[in-house]
Amino acid sequence: MSRASQLEQNNDEQFHALANKVSIFKNIANDINNYAQQDNNNLNSINDQMNLLSDNLRNTANKLTYVIRSNPKITKLSAIAFIIFLLIYYSIKYLF
């Protein structure tokens, strides 16, 4: 074999090795992209659920405000009953 053919064969081997490494890095980059898209979809889903929860909480707060304003005496009675219930519950829980 001549020197030129040895150099060319060596260059071809290095070229194929480099092509394999580039292919590996391309696959890794594609995997990272897929994971990033999946995470982005998960975050969008969580964001939608949090927006729905926020809307439901806002609606509940508005309804509670309406009930409190429309029946202040019943609201006071209910609040007192709830506080008494909590006092009894925690008293029993800590005693036993």
TrEMBL record:
Coiled-coil intervals: 36-63
Keyword Iron appears in the UniProt entry: no
Chief location category: membrane
Residue ranges constituting the T-SNARE coiled-coil homology domain according to the UniProt record: 5-67
Subcellular location: Membrane
Record key words, sorted: Coiled coil, Membrane, Transmembrane, Transmembrane helix, Transport
Transmembrane segments annotated in the record for this chain: 74-92
Protein name: Sft1 protein
Species name: Pichia kluyveri
